Structures are given as structure tokens and as C-alpha cells.
Amino acid sequence: MALRAATTLGLLLPPPSQRERITRSCERSLSRFSYVCRRAHSRALAVDRTSSSSSSSSSSASTNTNITATGKLVENEKNEIKKKKKKEEEERENRNGALSPTTTLERNEDNRLPGLMNVESFAKDTITSDVVSVHDYMEQVPFFLGDDGGPPRWFCPVFCSPLIDDAPLLLFLPGMDGTGLGLVLHHESLRRMFEVWCLHIPVHDRTPFEGLLKLVEDTVLMEMKQRPAGPIYLVGDSFGGALALSVAARNPTLDLVLILANPATSFDRSQLQPLFPLLQAAPSEVFTVVPYLLSFTMGDPLRMAAARVQKDALPPERALQMQESLLSLLPTLPTLVDVVPKEALLWKLKMLHSAALYTNSRLHAVRAEVLVLASGKDQMLPSAEEAKRLKKAIPGCRVRYFKESGHTLLLEGDLNLGSVIKSTGCYRRGKTWDPVNDYVMLTRDEYSASYNSYIRQLLSPVFFSTSDDGEVEQGLSNIPTDRPVLFVGNHLYFGVELSLIVGELLKQRNLLVRGLAHPFLFKTGIEEELQEPSMTDLYRTFGAVPVSGKALFKLMKNGYSTLLYPGGAREALHRKGETHKLFWPEQSEFVRMAARFGCTIIPISSFGEDEVLDVVLDLDDLRRIPFGERLMIALPQFRTEAQGEVADQPLHFPFLFPKLNPGRLYFLFGKPIYTAGRREELQDREKSAILYEHVKSEVARGLDYLREKRDRDPYRQLLPSRLLQSSGAEN
After folding, report:
1. Which family does the record assign (predicted)?
2. How high is the pLDDT of residue 65?
3. pLDDT in the model for residue 345
4. CA nearest 598: which of 99, 93, 1?
5. Spatial CA neighbour of 373 closest among 186, 232, 213, 193
6. Are 669 and 701 in contact (CB under 8 A)?
7. What is the mean pLDDT of the segment spanning 517-525?
8. What does 343-389 look like in DSSP terms, one character per residue?
9. Which helix (H) or strand (E) holds 4?
């Protein structure tokens, strides 16, 4: 990993004598990229940003170094990237020439649709065989332990060079190790969203907590002047979490987003507190085993080793990979003795105590957006209880709880930090979260982890699509992808079909569909004290947006394909005996909006709920039983035009039982309805109403078709369908 300076605070590079050794080691551990080591300054430059940039430029000219003091790509790298992008854009334009039959779609500077560009990034994304794990951390750490006499400084991994121009700045504040390598597992996911700078605190450095606080604060203030339009992210791991909170408390007016992994604000309540005095009296010979003991206290070796195990491998292969991963991890443990030698450990324990006292006395002043990542099996700190305390003490603080994880959460393979930031709605490039424009396309790894779930395996869905000439075929090959599509369909109970439709369109057609979901699902105030990753997080990952006319307009304007349910909550929480019944309003606004942007309309029929679950208590039952209204949620009416049955649907907890032998779900994508070139025609309310009724009738007709299909399906029940899946045959 080539390292380049991120601020004027200095550069972290090993001496030239170690270059070849570093390169060979890193090429063995990471085949995707190698570390290129270059000569640079070892001392921090005590000058402002402007003078540092100019002096760095002159220094670069005289020494032919490829490292700049601002952490930006050097000019020749920029030119190469621009040429490559231009060539790719020309190829896409030639390939997607049919994407411009209308000029009303919101295009970027290159006259291309952002929504379709997102899909292109997914189509090009590949899953590599090389998996970054804690092994890479152990192999890279030795090169960060040399004593160059320099102070704490920032570095930016070149592999983390941002893929977007307006990427927010993310500052990583390390834990007790101080190396700044704590994000090594997350570099690839974070570079899609941020410009990443990491703080390195040399092993022999003795800068007090107040000094580190001033260093980070000065960097934040300096960069905030350069990036006034958006937030700066502070990711704090353990000790770094306390440091991030202190910066936020001292600067309550700054736009900061804090991501805290097991913050050390609970250090004085640590389970290991009685053992710390013994460390000072321990002789050096005995102390050499302390890092080994701490390694098993701070993290679960099995979960760390599991990062190298392929998730889709068969059980015997997974067991073999786990064995190999553990065996290769054990020889690297002696490195920990050098990471936290006795003097450094004692110093850091004192600094942790100071950090906890300083931060806890100022929590009341924190006004930043805060997300706490808490581990359930943290043997170092009471992180779960601390997460509850911080949620109460800091306004708007949110929590994501990982009950099986240990203290070193960021080094465990099950966590993807970029995914967590996206799925919680914490990622934004402006002052407020824009669910349409702030969306970052999910990766294939995220897709595989989410869509190949037990729900899909259990329900074994089957999909049909209709061609332009009306022929129905199994699969989704008839779905057009030359321009944005508005999918309009019916809800099954509690929207169980939503993730299946979106996931299958991505799988078969590389087509991202942004779903419109009830705004209640996006309310953060209803989250639990220790909120585990939820279905709402999954919806955000796949690009769901709170439903509104403005949101639909914005999605279409930006060229996104969209999934709309006119029946809304009334259909998703229907009463007993109303299975597969449509509850659509009289309004036909989506027809005129689709015509305005030339979007293709495709009706979707979803069928099979009656063989999957039974509704035990519906809204009518809750209204009849004592205290039943307490189980209902009264919300402001956001569909003010809705009347009658559609409007009569407060939200309530779903009372249902799954079938013991559940059936399959069936989906029919109807014949595409093209609106391109019909804008003036469909602005007429009568004509748009006719098309609206046609779409509704197509959904109803599709339900009848799927009912007949199910009656003739020999694999409609769980056991036969699972046998079919295991055989790999077409279904």
C-alpha cells in the first residue's frame, strides 16, 4: 500500500533500507495491490496549509517524489485517471445510445444518468478471491513500529483514494495500538465513499491526550474551511472514540459525524481494572506474555480468522479454511509484544484514564451526529452498557449492537464499516441526508450477504416476465434496461416481497430498483437501546427511499428505476380474507410523472402469501379487543389525497404465524408500457386515468395467471422446492 501524506503534519514512511522487504511482504499478503515505499520527511512541518502545499510542491520538483502534502493525487496520476474515465465514458455512450430519447431527465456534466451510472458500477464490480483480514494487519504492523523520532501524524493509503470527486473526509483515530491500521479490512469499502486519513501515533511517542486532542482539532478546523458544504467524519476505535467525542464537545457548531467502535469512555469501569496495577510491578520477562493475553481478551480469534473463510463455501471446505487461517494467525502474535511494549502500555493506560475523565465531563456539550458500534462480548470494556449510557447522554445518538463481537470490532471479518455507515443512513455529502443523491451503490459482496438469505431459500420464489409481444417467459430477460423503469405492483403482507423483487432484478438484469417505503421505517427515534442491524438497514442498503411525491419525482429525474406500491400500508397490512386484494387510490399521479420523464411502466403481480403465513390478529381484531389500540401507531397522514379504505390504515405490529409447510412465492412482470414521447398526451387527466386503470387491471390479471401457474406447480410446497434447489434444476 503506497502511503502518502494527508496533511501538513508530516509523512509516515519507513527508511529506504526496508523498501524491498516491505514490497515483498505486502505482495505476498495482498495480490490486489502492493506497497510502494518512497522517501519523505520524517518530521512534522510547523507551517500552515498554504505554505506547506507550496513548499511540498517545490520539494517534489527537486526530489521527483510522488507524494504531496495535501494527500491529493499527483498531477500525472490525475491525468491518467481522467484519460481512463473519458475512454470508459465514450464506450458507455456508444453502448447506451438509446438512453437519451428525452432531455427532461437530470443528467450530470457528461450528459449521463446518475441512476444508470450506479448500476454500471455494480455490473463492473467483481468479487476478488483475496480477502483482507487480521493477518494483513499483523503483517503490516512491523513496518509502522520503527522509531523515526517523529510526532503523531496523518497518512492516507493510496488504495483508499476516493472514487468520487466530492467525497467527504474521514479521519480515523486508532485505539491502543496507535498504528492507524485499524481500518485495513475496510479500505476497499470506504474508498467508495470517503477520502480516508489515518492517525499514526508512534510506539515511543509520549504526546499527552491534550496534545493529541489539539492535533485532531486543528486538522478538523483546517479541513472544515476547505470543505464547508459537508460534514467531516471521525471514526474512533476504543481510545479514538473518546478522542472523537472530545473534539465534538469542544466544537459543538461544527458539522461532524462520529462513528465510535467500543469507545473507551467506560475505561474506568473496565473488567480488567483490578489487573492494571499488577502490570507496573510485572518483571520484563513475565510482561512478554501480557500482549498474548490481551489479544485474546480484546478479540475473538475465531471471528478474526473467519474473515479469510469464504462465506459461500461448503461446510467441509469452510472448516479447512478456518483451520488454515488460525494456523497462519498464530505465528504473527509475537508482533504484539512490539506493538505494546511495557513502557508504552503503561503510558497508554494512563492516557486512557485521562481521556475517559476529560470526555465524560464534556458529554453534555456534544451536538454531533453520533453512531455507536457496540460489541456484546467485549472482555476489555463494558461496551454494551456504555452504548446505552451514551444514547441517553447525547441527543440523537444511535447504536448498532453486534452481540457476538469482541473489543476489536473493526478487525473482525463479519463487519463491513462502509456498509454499516450506509445502512444506518449516516452517509451524506451535504448538510442533511438526501436519500436519493447520497445513495452509494451496494457492492456485490453486500448483495451476496443480503440477498442469498434464508428467506429466499425458504420461499423459493419463481419469476416470470412478459415480452413486448405479450409472451410470458420464466426469468426476467424481458425486462428492458435501456432507460429507467417504474415498476408498479401489489403488496404482500408486511411487504415480504420487496427485497425479493429488488434482489432478483439486480441478480438477473444488473438493474438497481429504488423502492419507496413507508416513512415510519426510516424514523431513528424508534430504535432500541441496543439496536441490532434490522430490515430497515437492509432497505437503505438497497436504496429504499421514504415514499412521497417529491421523492418519486427526484428519483425519476435522476434516472433511477423505481418500485411503487399504490396500495401502501393498507395493502401491506390487509385484514383477514383480503389476501391478494388491491387497494389502490383513485389518483393517477404516477402515470403523468412517468410520462414526464419518459419512464417505462411495468406492472408487477406478487402472489402466494396465503400458503406462506396466516394473519392471526388484524386491525379489526385489535379495535375490538381491550387495549388493542395501544398496539397501533398513530402517524401524521402523508397521503393527504387518500380517502376511504386506503386512508384507514394505522400501522400496527403484525400478528401472524408462518405455515408449517410453506409454499412458494410467484411474481409476474407484465408487458412494458412505454411512455417516451407521450408526455403531452398523458398530461390529460382522462387519458392518464385510463392508463392508470390499465396498469391496475394488468396487476389483477397477473394474479389470476399466477394462481393458475401455482395450481400446476409440482414444487409449490417447501420440501419439493428445496429438493429442486439442491438439484440445481430450473424452477
Report:
1. Belongs to the diacylglycerol acyltransferase family.
2. 29
3. 82
4. 99
5. 186
6. no
7. 85
8. HHHHHHHHHHHHHHHHHHTTGGG--SEEEEEEETT-SSS-HHHHHHH
9. strand 3-5
Assigned C-alpha cell, 626:
381491550
Judge whether 510 and 501 are in contact, CB under 8 Å.
Answer: no
Residues with Cβ < 8 Å from 464, sequence gap 6 or more?
472, 473, 474, 475, 666, 667, 668, 669, 706, 709
Average pLDDT of 529-544?
Answer: 91
Distance in angstroms (rounded) separating the CA atoms of residues 467 and 51: 64
Query: For residue 342, what is the enclosing H or E element?
Result: helix 342-360
| Rounded CA Rg of the chain | 28
Residues 194-209: tens digit of each pLDDT: 999 999 999 889 999 9
> Which amino acid is located at 121 in the chain?
S
Q: Yes or no: say if 35 and 144 are a contact pair by the CB < 8 Å rule.
A: no
d(CA 212, CA 206): 10
Compute, in degrees rounded to 10, the torsion defined by CA atoms 638, 643, 644, 649: 0
pLDDT band at 37, cuts 50/70/90?
very low
- Say if residues 420 and 519 touch (Cβ distance below 8 Å): no
CA dist 128 and 146 (Å) reads 32
Q: Which of 518, 484, 690 is nearest to 588 (CA)?
A: 690
- Alpha-helical runs (H) found in 227-341: 239-250, 276-281, 284-287, 290-298, 301-305, 315-329, 335-339
What does DSSP say about strands 398-402 and 369-375: parallel, antiparallel, or unpaired?
Answer: parallel
- Grid cell 414526464 is found at 596
CB 492, CB 695: distance < 8 Å: no
Cell matching residue 190:
470506504
Average pLDDT, the chain: 78
User: Over pLDDT 70: what percentage of the chain?
Assistant: 68
Strand order in the sheet with 600-607: 472-474, 462-466, 666-669, 600-607, 485-489, 561-564, 513-517, 545-546
Q: What is the DSSP letter of 610?
A: G
Residues 355/246, Cβ–Cβ less than 8 Å: yes
Instruction: Judge contact between 446 and 415, C-beta under 8 A.
Output: no
More confident site: 308 or 681:
681
Calpha distance 349→476 (Å, rounded): 59
Residues 118-132 as b or e (16 or more Cβ within 10 Å = b):
bbbebbebeeeeebb
Give pLDDT, residue 267.
Answer: 93
DSSP string, 458-510: HH--EEEEE-TTS-EEESSTTS--SS-EEEEE---GGGTTHHHHHHHHHHHH-
- 488 pLDDT band, cuts 50/70/90, is very high
Contacts of 401 (CB under 8 A, 6+ apart): 374, 376, 384, 387, 530, 531, 532
> What does the DSSP assignment read for 156-193?
EEGGG--SSTTPPEEEEE--TT-SS-TTTTTHHHHTTT
Query: Is the full-model pTM beyond 0.70?
Result: yes
